[in-house]
Structures are given as C-alpha cells and as structure tokens.
Amino acid sequence: MKSLMRMYQFMKPYRRDAIAALLLLVFVVAADLSIPRLTQRVIDEGVRAQNMQVIVRTALLMFGVAVLEAAISVGNIILSVRVGLSTATDIRSAFVRKVQTLSFGNLDRVQTGQLLVRATSDINQVQMVMMMTLRILTRAPLWAAGSVVMLILTARKLAWLWLAMLPLIFGIVVLFLVKARPLFLIVQQKLDKLNTVMQENLAGVRVVKAFVRGEHENQRFKRANDDLMANTIRVFNFVVFLMPLMMTITNLASVGVIWFGGNLAIAGEMSVGQIMASVNYMIFSLFPLMMLIGMIAPLSAAEASAGRILEVLDSTPEVQQRAEARLPETKAGRVVFEGVCFSYNHGCTDAVLSDIDLVAEPGETVAILGATGSGKSSLIHLIPRFYDVDGGRVQIDGVDVRDWPMQELRAQVGIALQEAVLFSGTVRDNIRYGRPDATDAEVIAAAQAAQAHEFIMAMPEGYDTMIGQRGVNLSGGQKQRIAIARALCVQPRVLILDDSTSAVDVETESKLQDALDELLRTQLAHRSTVFVVAQRISTVLTADRIVVLDRGRIADTGTHAELMARSAIYREIYESQLGNGILANGQREAVGPASVAQAALQTGA
After folding, report:
1. What is d(CA 292, CA 287) in angstroms, rounded to the nearest whole number?
2. If pLDDT is split at 50, 70 and 90, which confidence band does 336 have?
C-alpha cells in the first residue's frame, strides 16, 4: 500500500478536520462497545432478578447512547466527506499542473484517454478510500481491538478461544489483499483501453459516419467493453469467496463460544448475560474484519489507481530549465542551428534530423519544404524547445535555447501548429489566448492579417461569438486562420507556421501572405523572423529562403529561382504540384493569387 500511503500526504492541509473526525469516531466506537455490557445488565440484573426498574433504566440508557452515537456519526461523516473531497481536489489540481509541466516527449508516451482516466476514475477511487479511512478503515481496527479487550474483561476463558482463531482470519485477509491488487491493476488498464477507444470514437464520429464504419467502431468498443467486464467479473469472483469463508469461521467460533460458555454457565462459573455479551463482543470484533474484507476491492483498486497517479506526478519533464538560465543582450529573432541531430528515442543513431546547419536572420522568412516524414515539424519544434536536441545546439540571439528561461523563450515565439486547437470561449478570447492583455485593436489587426476578420464579422456576435469545444462549429480553414491570428497577436520575435494553411484555399492563402507581410513590416514594433512549414509549394515561393529537407537532412537552401536551377528534389516537388504554370524565376507577377490558384486547381494541389 505504499502508493496509497503517499497519497495521504495531500491530506496534511486538512489534518485538523481529519483529527476531529477521528476523535468523533473514538466516541462512536466507545458507544458501540457499551451496548453488549448494557445488554448483560438487562439479562443478569433485570430479567434474571425480575427487576423491571433495571430493565427500564438500562433500556433508556441504551436509547440515549444510540441517539448520541447517531449525532456523533453525522459529524464524523460531514468532516470525512469534507476532508476526502478537499484532498481529491488538491490531487486533481496537482495532476493537471504536473501534466502542464511535462514535455512533448513525456506526452508522446501517454495517451490522452489514459490521462483522462487517471484524472477522473483513478482519483475518484483514491478519494473514496480517503473518506472511508476516516470512517470505516479507522473505525474497524478500533472496534476490533476494543471488542477483544471488552471480551477479555467480560469472559476471559471464552476470549482465549476467539484469540486463537484471529491469526487464521488475519492470514486469510492478507492473502486476499496480496492476490487481489494485481487483478485490480489489470481492471484499471482495461478501463484505460475502453476510454481510449471511446475517446477516438467520439472525437472521430464524423469520419466514422463518412466512411460508414459505425458497425466496425461498435464492435471495437464492444471488444474493449467485454474485456473490461470479463476482467472485472474475474476479480469479484475471486473476492466473493472471502465473505462466505469468513462467515463460516464466525459461525464456527460462535458455536464454540456458546458450547463452552454453556458448560461454564451450567457449572455456575459464568452467567447467561456474560455469554450473551461474549457472543456480541465476538461478533463485534469480527464485524470490523468483515467491513475490511468488503474494503479489499476498493482498497486494491485505490492502490492500483494511486500508483498510476504517482506515475504521472513522479514523471520528470524531459525538457527542464537550467539553473544558470540567462537572457540575450538583445532580442532580434536570429535563429541558428549548429550541427543539430535529434531523435525521439534520444540518440543520434536513428536520428530524425542529422547535421542541421541553418541560420535565419532577423526579419527573414524561411520556408521549410520536404516530403512527409522528412523532419519539417521536428525541426521547428526544437526552436521553442518542445524537445531538446541530442547533438549540436539551437540558438536564438546568440543564446542556446536550453539556457533561456523557459517562459521567456516561449514568449518570444508565436506558433500555429499543424492541428488548429481552439478552446471553448469567444473568438476574441481564443485570438488573445497567448496575450490576454491584447487590446481589441490588436486582436482585430491579427485577425485581419490572418484573413479571419471577414468571416468572424459574419458570425452572429462577431468577436463575441462562442466557439464550441475544439472549434466544432468552424470549418478547418477557419480554425487555422484563428490559430494564425492567435500566433500573430503575441507579436513574437520568431513566428512559426507549421503547415497551418493546409485547409485554406490557395487564393486566401496568397492574400494571407500579403497581409502577413504587411503586418510584420508596418504594424508591429519589430519584424518577426518567420518559419513557414509547408507541403504546398505555392506557400513558399516568395520566401526569402527555402530549405529543402530530405530524410532528416538539408538537401539544399536558396530562393525559388536558385533551387529551380540546381535542386532536383525541389524541381520534382514543383513539377508535381504546379507544373509549368508559373515562371521559374518566381517573380511576384507570375505568382499572384489567380495564377497560383489556377495552377493548383489544375494539378489538384
């Protein structure tokens, strides 16, 4: 139970309420333990002596004890629930904060569905056990120990019979606990798989319908669901044998106590009331064990869940800020790659990028072009330090990005990723997401540059229009343009557009390039260094420099005209997309919106 015990550290801020709940629990147990002795008095001093006054007084006393116990129990429950919910809230907050600190490399190895299960189901399991700790899990041992003590005080000869059986009972309980934990861990893993399938099914429901794969997805979910059910049944089939076994032991012990006690009573060594009290205390001492047995399932599940939560909380971010972090003397946006190699498996033996040497001067637009899997996105992800290089270094303004303070570094970089992720909220809030203090004029300027202002104003409430979850009420092109506006609103020194216009038509893209150039040149206090990653060659024709990647290496760099003259790879890409519809010299007159759109439509680009 090491993992679960570590979870109790989150209870420290609420220890006063926890201690109060435990003190109330002591009074509840004391009230419970007084009942058999009062029952003994009724039998021995009331019924046997035919003294009605003793019976009435004792009955009223028992009633008062029951009322007091009920009131104290209510207070214990209120405090227990408060502590449990507060602790679970802190664990959940710590979990989400930890996820936010993890690097892309950490998140690549954990599926979103798994994180959701750990942040919800697993934490709920731990929360339930924490509440039960202040009620059942603490009450049970107190009750058991108190019952044994009272049994010894009431009838010592009968107590030895019961104490002789306790090692057997504890041994059975421990055996079941050890065997049950790995089974519950498997159940949680199956729940992970079920949630992953469900998330993919719900997130991709439009694709499922478009390809008429509803039955396939239903079967896939059914397999995961049936697998979870089968493993859950397997666990409870194992646990279910424990309760009848313990009841059998209890009944045998009761028979033994009554038989031995009866002989002692006949011999005049023990009263009937003592026998009744002894039987009650024996049942009282076993009842907490039965409660603990019932807790084996949630305890085992909570221990497995706590381990999965700690797996995330104990994760070390692959990208960490160095103690000697420093800022450059000037911030101009000069980006330098020096002998960079990078691999997702950490090492340059199977590198995604190798021998990358590249310089982007302040204000320059550098286009990154290459086939799918050539390393384009991997290259630009090294600039804001989403990943660390395995060899060489990446510098911004003369300082290695690993030496920058993390927040300062990413504040200098605006990025529109391949997948345009928007958040529920207004259009305005999404655009100024990276710079909450941006003025309305700056938000509108960014939207205009991203060619988003027109369709935003056509919405029912303009910039105050609410966006559905992940932008479900927007087209792919609209989401991409809002994502570009969000990156522009930051007014970054380095702007990265990672294939962020793939869902935008060619004519709109050309307008966006013109507006973007105008914004960077005239409306911002500085001209950003721009990295444009593209699959579509029409996106990169007017860049100051085009970098052609091939299998993780720089095949060539230059302007459009230079690459047309000397790069076979670039010419092949060009011909496959645009053919001879545009002059090879790349002059602006030859690559206007109409001509680019016409050429792209003719070739299916």
Report:
1. 9
2. very high
CA distance 186 to 191: 9
What is the rounded CA–CA span in Å between residue 381 and residue 389? 10
Q: Coil, helix or strand for 339?
A: strand
Phi, psi of 434 (to 5 degrees): -85, -5
Q: Residue written as tokens 């590249």?
A: 358
> Which ranges constitute the DSSP H helices of 465-566?
476-489, 506-518, 560-566
pLDDT(592) > 60? no
Q: Residue 327 burial by CB count (10 A; 0-12/13-18/19+): exposed, middle or buried?
A: middle
- Residue 366: beta bridge partners? 531, 545
Place of tokens 């160095």: 322
Listed residue (571, 441, 431) closest to 488, CA to CA: 431
* Mean pLDDT along residues 455-470: 85
Cβ pair 410, 100 in contact under 8 A: no
Residue 135: which of 65, 71, 62, 84 has the closest Cα?
Answer: 84
DSSP state of 395: E
109 CB neighbour count, 10 Å cutoff: 11
Cα end-to-end span (Å), the chain = 59
Could you give phi then psi for residue 224, rounded to 5 degrees? -65, -40
- What is the number of other CB atoms lying within 10 angstroms of the CB of residue 489? 26
The dihedral formed by the CA atoms of 468, 469, 474 and 478, expressed in degrees to the nearest 10? 120
In this prediction, residue 240 carries a pLDDT of 75
Amino acid at 31: A
**With a threshold of 0.85, does the pTM exceed it?**
no
| Nearest residue to 369 via CA among 381, 361, 358, 377 | 377
The Cα 400–Cα 385 span in angstroms is: 10
What residues contact residue 241 under an 8 Å CB cut-off, 6+ apart? none
What's phi and psi for 91, nearest 5 deg?
A: -65, -45
- State which H helix or E strand residue 546 sits in: strand 545-550
Q: In what order do the strands lie in the sheet with 353-360?
A: 353-360, 335-342, 391-396, 399-400
- Point out which residues pair with 556 in neighbouring strands: 548
Asked if residue 197 lies in contact with residue 221, where contact means CB atoms within 8 angstroms, the answer is yes
Domains and CATH numbers, the chain: 2-313 (1.20.1560.10), 415-491 (3.40.50.300)
Integer Cα distance of 104 and 383 in angstroms: 13
Separation CA 389–CA 337 (nearest Å): 10
Number of H helices and E strands in the chain, helices first, is: 23, 12
Lookup result for tokens 């105008």? 518
Q: How many C-beta atoms lie closer than 10 Å to residue 361's C-beta? A: 14
Q: Which helix (H) or strand (E) holds 549?
A: strand 545-550
CB 471 within 8 A of CB 465: no
HSE-up of residue 474 (Cα within 13 Å, Cβ side)? 30
pLDDT of the residue at 342 = 92
> Which residue type occupies 17?
D
Q: Which residues of 157-186 are buried (b: 16+ CB within 10 A; e: fewer)?
A: ebbebbeebeeebeebbeebbeebbebbbb
